[in-house]
From TrEMBL:
This is Probable malate:quinone oxidoreductase. NCBIfam families: mal_quin_oxido, PRK05257.1-1, PRK05257.1-4, PRK05257.2-1, PRK05257.2-5, PRK05257.3-1, PRK05257.3-2, PRK05257.3-3. Keywords: FAD, Flavoprotein, Oxidoreductase, Tricarboxylic acid cycle. It comes from the Bacteria. It comes from Cnuibacter physcomitrellae. The lineage of its organism: Bacteria, Bacillati, Actinomycetota, Actinomycetes, Micrococcales.
Length: 501
């Protein structure tokens, strides 16, 4: 069977591949692209709206982006950088709405205040000091702090009903936060790609990758139905297969993947669709992580809007499975171990006893114990109103470290071959929210010959590209206002008004 040749091969039908494919189609419409998805539809793993909390990660409420050092100091640069990256994503989405690529903004993004809620005198002091640092940063303009129960009740009544009056509490709130349905966003982007000539092939598993003498890649695949094997040749390959990316990059044989390992963490959420409860909460409320807990396990009580229907989620409750994907294999973890990553993985195990202890505790926790965690946020929570749903698998990156042998890295990691002909994404949150800046960086690195010609179009898609909004208050205000208007984020929310009253 003759091997078809294309310009770009995308592996995995999630938000990353959909973003990169859309970007390339905007920059170079005549390039041929094929997209492989192992399952029968796109966005069924980490990009699925029920497999994540849908937070537009902008570091407005997530405390892990601004930890307190041993001496009590706090450094805002990481939080600011995460926010800057999310603004790039917002601008890109706004441009695609204006170009008609994306449907009405309400189909994938909705205004949702972001809050942080803490308990205990030390945490109240920490949150106040964090607010003092961030309130003067342009991208955090409008962030509010309160330790007054009456004010917090106005912001989020469910946090306060039946709470002990003498409990030390505090909260911050900023109304420019968002809830993002990455599943809907992925589907819309893939629909655009298919309508513009992209060859989309579902239920097709990538079995191997081999580099050719001319620098291109031959990708071997097999169809689930019929089991027909065949190959496709591509000048560039992107591995956006979520938890499956590590295995595929290992099969590619590129030296850049040596030393990388993966640690899978599964999770569950409590979910309620009870309209009486949902109507009383219009926010994403983040707390402080337990000792040893990974950042992705920071507890939060979230408004979710999926297919126009509002629900509440609480969690996540961390668990363990050796699978790298929800639909993966029990042999994913042991099958990923190589001589080159065994040392880093053992070093991570040695240095992360608190994480192991935390995971064991989570695995052994009963439903009543899980409800206790929910009631720390919502004292009136009743078991009958909440059901546990299984969230997506996350594979945290483990990699070599010259000092410690190996480190467990939270966040995302792009692995690219030296010649830029293949790249893949490893890791977890805040990946989806920062997909656009990640893909822009990837394009510049992997397509140096075309980058100069593409820059004007990239600037059209992301007007602030190349600048730091937080360093220019006027530019930050203009960008926030313009994207809010296009994405319909300035509309009043009747439920929020009703709650406050």
């Amino acid at each position: 069977m003759s091997t078809k040749s294309v310009d770009v091969i995308l592996i995995g039908g999630g938000i990353m591949s959909a973003t990169l494919g859309t970007m390339i189609k905007q920059l170079q419409p005549d390039w041929s692209i094929v997209l492989f998805e192992r399952l029968n539809d796109v966005a069924l793993e980490s990009s699925n709206p029920w497999n994540n909390a849908g937070t537009g990660h902008a570091a407005l409420a997530e405390l892990n982006y601004m930890p307190e050092a041993a001496d009590g100091t706090m450094e805002p640069s990481k939080a600011i950088n995460i926010n800057e990256q999310f603004q790039v994503s917002r601008q890109f989405w706004a441009s695609l709405v204006e170009f008609g690529v994306l449907d009405a903004p309400t189909t994938f993004i909705n205004p949702t205040p972001h809050m942080t809620f803490v308990r205990g005198a030390d945490n109240v002091d920490y949150l106040r000091r964090r607010w003092e640092i961030l309130k003067d940063e342009p991208l955090f303009e409008g962030i509010e702090f309160s330790d007054d129960p009456r004010q917090i009740y106005k912001w989020a009544p469910l946090l306060m009903r039946h709470r002990q009056k003498d409990e030390k509490i505090a909260a911050t709130r900023i109304t420019s936060g968002t809830d993002v349905d990455f599943g809907s966003l992925t589907h819309q982007l893939v629909d655009y790609l298919r309508a513009n000539g992209v060859d989309y092939r579902s239920e097709t598993t990538v079995k191997g990758l081999k580099k050719q003498k001319d620098g291109s890649w031959t990708v071997r695949v097999r169809e689930r139905i019929g089991g027909t094997p065949y190959s496709i040749n591509g000048k560039f390959v992107f591995v956006g297969a979520g938890g499956g990316a590590l295995s595929l990059l290992q099969k590619s044989g590129i030296p850049e993947i040596k030393g990388f390992g993966g640690f899978p963490i599964s999770g569950k959420f409590f979910r309620t669709d009870n309209p009486e409860i949902v109507a009383q909460h219009q926010a994403k409320v983040y707390g402080k992580a337990s000792v040893g807990a990974p950042p992705m396990s920071v507890p939060h009580l979230d408004t979710r809007v999926v297919d126009g229907q509002a629900s509440l989620l609480f969690g996540p409750y961390a668990g363990f499975s050796p699978k790298f994907l929800k639909s993966g294999s029990w042999f994913d973890l042991p099958g990923s171990i190589r001589l080159h990553n065994l040392g880093p993985m053992l070093a991570v195990a040695r240095d992360n006893f608190d994480l192991v202890k935390y995971l064991v505790g989570e695995l052994l926790a009963s439903r009543s114990k899980k409800l206790e965690a929910l009631r720390e946020f919502m004292p009136t929570a009743q078991s009958k109103d909440w059901r546990l749903i299984t969230a997506g698998q996350r594979v945290q990156v483990m990699k070599k470290d010259p000092k410690r042998g190996g480190v467990l890295q939270f966040g995302t990691e792009v692995v690219t071959s030296a010649d830029g002909t293949i790249a893949g994404l490893l890791g977890a949150s805040p990946g989806a929210s920062t997909a656009v800046p990640i893909m822009i960086d990837l394009i510049r690195k992997c397509f140096p010959a075309e980058s100069a010609a593409w820059e004007p179009k990239l600037k059209q898609l992301v007007p602030s590209l190349g600048t730091k909004l937080n360093a220019d208050p006027a530019a930050a205000e203009q960008s926030l206002d313009e994207t809010a208007k296009v994405l319909d984020l300035t509309r009043s929310d009747e439920r929020a008004v009703a709650t406050a009253s």
